Amino acid sequence: MSKSILIVEDSNSVREFLKSIILEMGFTCVVAENGEDALNKIPYHSIVLIITDLHMPVMDGFEFIEKVKKNR
């Protein structure tokens, strides 16, 4: 499993912009639309860095960060 950067962002245009920068730098990228989506993807990837929005629907960035911290 390659090491990846996780982008958690509800705006598609911002998500794609960040993804293009990360890919251009040679990293593998995983994208999620909200915190819940991200939590479901984390077990299937070797995430080394998370970039997250704070204000998102379904599960915001604050709740997402707390759940990630509890599950490490």
Residue ranges: pLDDT <50 for 5 or more in a row? none
Order of helices and strands: EHEHEH
Tell me what portion of residues adopts beta-strand conformation.
Answer: 25-35%
What radius of gyration results from the CA coordinates? Answer: 11 Å
Query: What share of the residues lie within helices?
Result: 40-55%
Shape estimate: globular
- What structural category characterises the helix and strand content? alpha/beta
Can you give a write-up of this model?
The protein has 72 residues and is of the alpha/beta class. The protein has a domain at 1-25 and 34-54. The radius of gyration is 11 Å and the shape is globular. It is 42% helix and 25% strand. It has a 3-stranded parallel β-sheet with strand order 2-1-3. It has helices at residues 12-24, 35-41, 61-70; strands spanning 3-8, 28-32, 46-52. The protein has 3 helices and 3 strands; from the N terminus they run βαβαβα.
